[in-house]
Amino acid sequence: MDSDPTRNRAPSIRDVARLAGVSHQTVSRVLNNSTSLREETKQRVQQVMDELQYRPNRAARMLVTSRSRTIGVISASGYQYGPASSITAIEQAARAEGYFVNTVNLDGSDRESIEKALNHLLDQAIEGLVVIAPQVRVFNAFTEMKLSVPFVTLQSTGTSDHALSVDQIAGARLATRHLIELGHRNIYHLAGPQDWIEAEARMHGFLTEMSENDVATTAPILGDWTAEFGYFAGRELLRVRDFTAIFSSNDQMALGLIHAVRDAGLDVPGDVSIIGFDDIPEARHFWPPLTTVRQDFAELGRRAIALLLSGGVSAGDHAAPELIVPELIVRGSTRAVSR
Amino acid sequence: MDSDPTRNRAPSIRDVARLAGVSHQTVSRVLNNSTSLREETKQRVQQVMDELQYRPNRAARMLVTSRSRTIGVISASGYQYGPASSITAIEQAARAEGYFVNTVNLDGSDRESIEKALNHLLDQAIEGLVVIAPQVRVFNAFTEMKLSVPFVTLQSTGTSDHALSVDQIAGARLATRHLIELGHRNIYHLAGPQDWIEAEARMHGFLTEMSENDVATTAPILGDWTAEFGYFAGRELLRVRDFTAIFSSNDQMALGLIHAVRDAGLDVPGDVSIIGFDDIPEARHFWPPLTTVRQDFAELGRRAIALLLSGGVSAGDHAAPELIVPELIVRGSTRAVSR
DNA sequence: ACGGTGCATGTGAACGGTCACATTGGGCTT
DNA sequence: AAGCCCAATGTGACCGTTCACATGCACCGT
User: Where are the domains of chain A?
Assistant: First the structure.
């Protein structure tokens, strides 16, 4: 007869208990390595667990403790270098603390897809949330939403206590100052999309640094982060050619810019200096190797988990966390202006 | 008195039942939209749910159905373009089917970190597993492991019924044939790490195509996928300069190669033709725009979920799934050999 | 010898859903 | 009008863990 009820079921705490000759509660104690357990008992139980290949049922545990040990991540464009690095770091940091990570990728930046994503995670009973979706709209959506779980926003300006971020303004100023110090006075800024917090911050840093040094500025060009856009923007810009340097808001657009300059028969950095932002791994092998501003995405991810697990971010009465300092990486795509 | 027991607890199915004046089972039926429910009852229950902002408790459901609706993803180097794209696609496809995705990043390729990652996911009671870790060692580890959950391996050679993959051999032959057709006869192959399935497959494709066209080959150089390595390998190679073309096993190394060729004062493609593999988004804006072989990582991810959810991959008695066909993208980094 | 103390362990009831089965009542057949 | 069926709903058990509390027992001081 194959009606043995234990046949198909995974072994439970009671199965272990029976075989070890103890109560189920004792097994539970071993599981949670409680104190006040005789070493001998512990070992016996442990041994039975190994034999049975026992695995605690997470659902049951979750049900009774009402803790999921799961952290949700909502990410836009998770396939890009920056977010992807942060996600990797988040996962590793979370796992080290025994947490699970559940990532959801946003389809769009509209309210509906945000809510769909969020609901998906809340269904999962997440205990914390990391938002890597630095569009202004998304950011506002989250701050307005009165979330019941602690959350942290990545890659924003750091004006909120929920926001963890690299100091974009400082980074942009670093880049801009570098160009100014090289003698450039006609500098364009190829910015990111208007509704991205980072793009805005970098633009702000650019404009501030320019005006503090009394350099006249032209209106920044709003791009979409892609090399493709950089290329076409570059072509457009070169029709006038009233500049000697461009500060691109990210490395991909800088790559497109270089491409356009080359297409026009000009040289980087001979005719035009170009500086990027991010320092993606490929940047140092662009031709010429790209001068850029490095931000530590992984550190960002680690800090997000640390902040979340320290449990401080739900109430909303904390000081804004420290900004991560970006670093200027000078390579071959910038040069002193020729007169 | 704040001893109201319902105060801090999330509303349960019974709370809803009480307020709607039905039994808890009826609420459950609404939840699973069972047939044989009066429309009126259904609506009433639904309304109470909305008022209470009721959310079914996933743990409880999981416990009784013993289904987690979670799919695990194990990934090496999840921050790179290929894997990251696949992961994004996997998540979206899975979510569309109501599944959750849990990603774990491998710290190393040793047995221990594999088992740690796997255990982490099994603790989570995953119903399926996608492995994006195309090292031979990792692949073998999984096939040997006698996993109890259905699983799919991505980016492998497709020799197993668990393996879903782009046809790496065909892709490599495409690249190689392109160079041969351009008249190149002295072609180097900069391969990926020896223990990567894809690297091996591409190398195999290269060698096959070369020998079928009676072109003499030199031993492939084993790289590590980074632009950095491509750069140094290129420098080394250029000390002899007995070649006119290089087939690089990925785009990053190709980028490093171009860098090295330029450093040596030579031109791509004038002096050396270079072809890559992957078609990362930046490739078309390299200088020169990179000729490469495109593989559709997102499609790979979607198929993985489709395969997993069709439930066919646990038994092991199925035909190997179809390979995805890669595509040659000709841009500016290759040119007919000059005589 | 006795009650108190504290450690090691056991007992039964939650947790919040679903499952299998029981119950109700209205409409149809005969 | 009796009997039957089926649709709509209710009842109680169960999933595998932890929690709160109970029990047994050795050891201690007096």
Answer: 13-65, 70-166+298-314, 168-296
